[in-house]
Every structure is written in structure tokens, then in C-alpha cells.
Design goal:
single chain, mainly alpha, 7 helices
Length: 127
Amino acid sequence: MLDNEKQLSEKTLATLLADETLLTLPEVADKLGLRITRVHDLLSAKRIIAVELSGKRYVPAAFFNDKGAISKHVAGIITVLSDGGFSNDEIFEHLFTPDETLPSRPIDALHGHLAREVIRRAQALAL
């Protein structure tokens, strides 16, 4: 990616995630009760993804359920979209952009009764 494209992408993501609670990787480790190296393993395995803003990596708090665990559908949709050729930035854009056919954004719907619908739509997009 060219530097201008990377800066544009970072600005777009920063705007999209402006109202989100973003956790640093050490905060994710604390939240999950894991060592930081295990968080890096989760990132490598694409169980979660991180956004890079101003040279630091963050994971949205929206990836976790109210019990402090990774929401069970988050890893699934990341896998579906990633296997379909989506970059991490494109996955963030898909998950955090409001969808007028849903009551909210796909990331919000993953925490409710529409999770299967969101994953089904992601599978259709990834074809």
C-alpha cells in the first residue's frame, strides 16, 4: 500500500472508530487474563484483529462480550471475511459501518439475535 493510501486508510479507520473504546494489547491481555504473548497468538490466529493508529495497535472493546471474553461470533466473522480476501482494514470497515438493513452496525448485531444473519451476509460478500 502506498504511503498516501495508508494515511487515507488510517484517517478513515480513525473516523470510523472515533466513538469506540479501543484497548491496547496489554489492556486486552488484562481483560482476558492472559500474557501479552498469548494476545499476539490470538492476533496471528485471527481470533481478533487490531487496527493500527498512529503507530500503535488497538483492539475494539466491541469484540468482547459483557463477561470480558471474546464474543463467540467475532472470530467467525473475521475468519469468513479474511478467507474471502478482506484485509484487516476492510474487515474493520465492514464491521463498524452502519448498515441500514440492520438495526445498527454488523459488530453490534453480532452480540444479539442477528449474529447468524450478519455471518451469512459476510459469507455472501466473501464469495
